[in-house]
Amino acid sequence: MSLVFENATLVDSLPKATSFFDAVSTVSQSSSSLSLLETYWAAWYHYMQNDVLATGLLFFLVHEVTYFGRSLPWYIIEKIPYFNKWKLQAEKTVSDKEQWECLKNLFISHFLVEAIPLWSFHPLAQKLGISITVPFPSWKTTVWQICLFFVLEDFQHYWTHRLMHYGPFYKYIHKQHHRYAAPFGVAAEYAHPIETMSLGFGTLGIPIIYVYYTRNLHLYTLSCWIILRLFQAVDAHSGYDFPWSLHHFLPFWSGADHHDMHHQYFVGNYASSFRWWDYFMDTEGGPEAKHAREERMKLKAEKLAKKTK
Ligand SMILES: [Zn+2]
Ligand SMILES: [Zn+2]
């Protein structure tokens, strides 16, 4: 029996569905006030008749479809010379063989490292009070919780990433992610298993801590957050900066040019989604930022020299 409906008697009264679409029509007939998305959500849990399996499979599919679905357009764009004028490191190309090597590694990571926490997530979600019921929370709640997760993940990412560039952490863990100096979409999750777990903590661990204290989170919100975070990560590795890219409209959004520079120069631009941590901690990457930093240091030294004269 699924807990997707708060009203348990409603679940008992619903006939078992023979197919997913049969479940959709059963749910829409019994609860006409639900939106289309809520109907599909409830029908999924009703059809599966096993919430642990339903959440596990849902998360697995959301991850695979979003990650590879978002990476595919970047692979196609790479093949079309017209888009070259917006490529950040236009002189560098990645062969299909290299991309295939990256993909093979990702499949291992997705099926072994990431699949276990995803498949076993439902019992933990239940314990923490993450809701799966319909109707969903208001869109305002969903939006501000996702914004909060973006800000907190960016903070966690910035400091963990800086640590990853320190001596042995870089040598034994983070170096793998830096294999590609000119990144491409699908390389976003190409990383050592320890780094994959650390990235997973930012994406799943932060909402877990949040719901532990607030007891207010819906699995639907969590799914939307995961989708948007995957979009951010794949796009940051795309290697393209278009005039219509988000950071041209939201100047504090990091985007591809921010992270591309990190891969190109190996230092600076450590944050994931926003530019503010690198700005305030003076760790902006690239030759321009380096030059500005040197100028500032020179000015400071001159001032100090004048004072001590
Ligand atoms: Zn790095
Ligand atoms: Zn990267």
TrEMBL record:
Specify one Pfam family. FA_hydroxylase
Q: Name one GO cellular component term.
A: membrane
User: Where does this polypeptide localize?
Assistant: Membrane
Where is the major localization of this protein? membrane
GO molecular-function terms, A-Z = iron ion binding; oxidoreductase activity
What region holds the Fatty acid hydroxylase domain? 147-283
What's in the keyword line of the UniProt record?
Answer: Membrane, Transmembrane, Transmembrane helix
Q: What biological process terms from GO does the record include?
A: lipid biosynthetic process
Q: Which InterPro entries match?
A: Fatty_acid_hydroxylase, Sterol_Desaturase_Related
Q: Does the keyword Transmembrane helix apply?
A: yes
Q: What is this protein called?
A: Fatty acid hydroxylase domain-containing protein
